[in-house]
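User: We ran a pulldown and think these components assemble together. Before we commit to crystallization trials, I'd like a predicted model of the whole complex to look at. Sequences follow.
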Amino acid sequence: MKTFNFNEDVVSTNIVVTDGFFDGGAGTKAGSNYTTSSLSAAQKNYYYNVQFNSKDHFSCTYGHIGGSGSAEQSTTVEGTTQAVYKQFYNFTENNRASLKNGVGWIINSVTQSDAYMIAAERLQMKDRLNPGTWTITLSGSTTAGVGAELKLTDNSKTTDPTAAPFGEKYIIYSGSAGSVQATGTEYGHFYPDAGLFILSAAEVSGSLPGSSGWIQSGSGDVGKHNGLAPDTRVNSAADNAWKITRALEQGSVTLRSEENQYIYDYFCRAKANEVNYSTNLTFWSGSDYIIRHSDMQNNPQTYISEVGLYDGGGDLMAVGKLSAPLEKNFSSEAIIKVRLTY
Amino acid sequence: MGILDNDTVIVDAILTKLGRNKLRLGQSLGITQYAFGDTGVDYTLYNPNHPSGSDSYGSAITSLPMLEAVPDDDVFMRSKLYGIGQRGIQNFAFVDLPDGLTRTIYHIPDGIESTPIELKPRVYSAGKETSANNFRFTVLDMRGLMAKNEGSSVTGTAFNAADIDKRQLVGTSLSLNAQGGQISRNVTRTVNIELADGGAAPVQVAVTVQKNTAVDDPGAGSS
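Assistant: Here's a predicted model for the assembly, 565 residues in total across the polymer chains.
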């Protein structure tokens, strides 16, 4: 085995690889491709899963700071929407004491009493979601039942992020693919490292309220004009997580995943007078192991078909295969760049 | 005046199971060395009588599609290329085992112990035995076995452990035995023996290990 000269033979590079978020690497999928997965009634009290190609891609939920929209909410029973709100707030915000004072997510300089949350499936988003390139198109209608769309994106192309407990936080505005259309209205917060979109229920329902019949129609009623005005009754029929799920299913999403990759290039050099013999038994012949071909006796030819990278103890750590064997003899040199990515 | 080839080929490598395991344990890969191999190349396909002349002698080898790399570290790099400056080598040294390439670890009757085997390889070059050689013994699966040689001993994981337990020892010989009462069925295990510093054709020994979990299991000499 030969030892690497690390000053000359090894080059490392860190690159960010992006890919379409959806199964198979697709970057955009219309909501008509989505389905909701089978969940128990108890799970649907909290969230819905949106699938593409039978694989989970998003989880959609709704939270209310006071528990409105839950089946139960009282001084002795904490509603499901309150639990969701507190869980996501504590997860995404630094000032965890503020909830005690009735202060939640501040969007448009106002505490948002309720919010829709869209969480990206970790398997699809890889290391994190790619900021500045996504568009979520929510589809619904006005109170009069006229169809309308709300296209959302983040402000990462023009504005530095603020800090979430685990990384970056951006503001969600209307726009697409990182191009903000108007900064007058903040629609929510985007946390790329957590794969989370927190949408102000007040703001998104301002654009897509849905018809009045829809608001208290419960889940599964797709005959009415859907929208995002929440049903704030304390009633088991209130099913606001379904509202954001339905708006996604009628809209579309363009989204990319991000992954950090570390590339190590090892330059493996075979000089003219090196590696011209082989331990391959077909190289030799007979019980005395004589070189098989007499014309090779003074000019041996070997064929490099693989390169092994070893640790100091001689254990094989990585192996690279050539697409075709490379001829090597005393008249040739070879440099094989072995690329290891992980 | 001839021009020497200076080819640069780019190859994507994959981590072996050993490499992955190092990363899993939070260790760096610690890659410091490399070697070229030709596992799977068949030099009998080299044709010095090729009608197109010497440039085509190896065309049957270079035209063959190659298999993709796989993570198992025993599949590839089994035959390595070697040589630094030597020219005119006519013979290749080889490892030989005087006691044969198939051995059996017998169960001792009326107990749960077994009889160890001793692997004492020799190296021959140009028909003569060379002296004072160190060998690398690689037991591809040590589950239920134990081994020792000069100054070191290794006990494999339990016979019914889920993961294969590959071990290596370096020395002039190797004593291999079954752990008492561990082997619940007859199995055959492989031991690769190569010169620790390379330069000789390795051998593989197939070791049959008799069941030894019950006192009435078949005894010495039976299989």
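Chain A touches chain B through 73 residues (CB under 8 Å). That may be worth checking against your pulldown data before setting up trials.

User: Thanks, that helps.
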